[in-house]
Write a sequence for this structure.
């Protein structure tokens, strides 16, 4: 066991804390007190889709993962069978 | 039957959020279905302590106001399958939550979970009274320090008057969780002892969690201490408290002073 390990356990968590905060605050400050971009995007995307087909709000799954390089917004909409023309 | 638990204190910074996350995780690790709900609207932090901050899309306010379905706002923990989080919003609107809306959400949560753990904001205003409003049981988080004990006493008064249970004439069950306890300082008489606090507040003891660096590193990495470092004294204290909540008869052990590194070097016992 290295000395660093011996003294480490509590201490090494601090850089993790700093990184997590930097990432989170970058997103939160970007809001300027307003709404989260991801929340706005998903609302508008759903509104556009709802113009064309009836979507059941219970069948919509929204997942988000804010990363430092990329963030992913995943919107999973179950379409009623009648929504798409059959070929 | 599901239980709604409010984790409350009056005073801020005593360990409500830490305890909500740790008790919630410990109950889930014991196989219970658990949701922890952040009632600290405007100052959400439970997401950060549980490591879910990157995944928040909707929150309690969205659900209460009907802008999102409950299922869409719940965040499943990635480590413990039966643990979920309902985050608070960052809105500054103090009236974002209504009693009727919160009641509806709690009813829905009761149907899906064995335990609904409500992390109360500090204070005695609307946020704190809404968090306790529908609870079956209160965990009163207290530090062995005068202002914390006084504020806990105040909160116990509110629990006995402002909750639905109290208003309908039922007994509101309250249990004391003593946190940030320092055995060395208590031994030296610099900090109130467990007996002192219990005598003043006169409610049953749920557990004692020592002041511990393991708690800090757990929140640094966003992982409740019962998951991050299960062998640590803090994790064991929370796990035992969780077992007591589940009705197990586990005696509360009062943390003993551990010998400091220096006193071990010199072969002295630090205990008075
Ligand atoms: N047992 C403990 N040992 C050391 N630090 C603790 C302990 N419990 C809580 N803390 C720290 O105290 C601070 C306040 O805790 P928190 O849970 O946010 O309190 P509250 O929700 O009551 O305001 C946090 O920095 C937390 O890490
Ligand atoms: Mg808190």
């Amino acid at each position: 066991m290295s000395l660093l390990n011996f003294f480490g356990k509590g201490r090494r968590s601090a850089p993790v804390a700093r990184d997590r905060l930097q990432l989170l605050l970058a997103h939160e400050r970007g809001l300027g007190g307003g709404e989260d971009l991801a929340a706005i995007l998903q609302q508008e995307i759903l509104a556009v889709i709802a113009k064309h087909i009836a979507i059941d709000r219970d069948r919509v799954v929204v997942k988000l993962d804010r990363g430092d390089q990329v963030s992913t917004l995943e919107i999973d909409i179950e379409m009623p069978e009648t929504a798409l023309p059959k070929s | 039957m599901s239980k709604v638990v409010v984790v409350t204190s009056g005073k801020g910074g005593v360990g409500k959020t830490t305890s909500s996350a740790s008790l919630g995780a410990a109950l889930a690790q014991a196989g219970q279905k658990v949701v922890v709900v952040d009632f600290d609207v405007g100052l959400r932090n439970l997401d950060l302590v549980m490591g879910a901050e990157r995944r928040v899309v909707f929150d309690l306010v969205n659900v209460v106001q009907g802008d999102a379905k409950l299922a869409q706002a719940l965040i499943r923990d990635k480590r413990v399958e039966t643990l979920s989080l309902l985050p608070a919003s960052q809105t500054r609107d103090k009236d974002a939550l209504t009693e009727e809306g919160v009641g509806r959400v709690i009813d829905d949560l009761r149907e899906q979970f064995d335990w609904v753990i409500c992390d109360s904001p500090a204070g005695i205003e609307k946020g704190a009274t809404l968090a306790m409003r529908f609870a079956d049981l209160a965990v009163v988080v207290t530090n062995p320090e005068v202002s914390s004990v006084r504020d806990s006493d105040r909160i116990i008064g509110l629990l006995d008057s402002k909750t639905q249970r109290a208003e309908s004439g039922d007994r509101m069950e309250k249990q004391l969780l003593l946190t940030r306890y320092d055995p060395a300082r208590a031994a030296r008489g610099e900090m109130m002892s467990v007996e002192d606090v219990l005598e003043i507040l006169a409610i049953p003891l749920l557990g004692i969690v020592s002041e511990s660096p393991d708690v800090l590193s757990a929140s640094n990495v966003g992982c409740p201490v019962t998951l991050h470092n299960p062998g640590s004294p803090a994790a064991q204290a929370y796990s035992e408290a969780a077992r007591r909540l589940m009705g197990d008869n586990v005696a509360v052990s009062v943390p003993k002073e551990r010998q400091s590194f220096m006193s071990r070097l010199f072969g002295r016992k630090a205990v008075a």
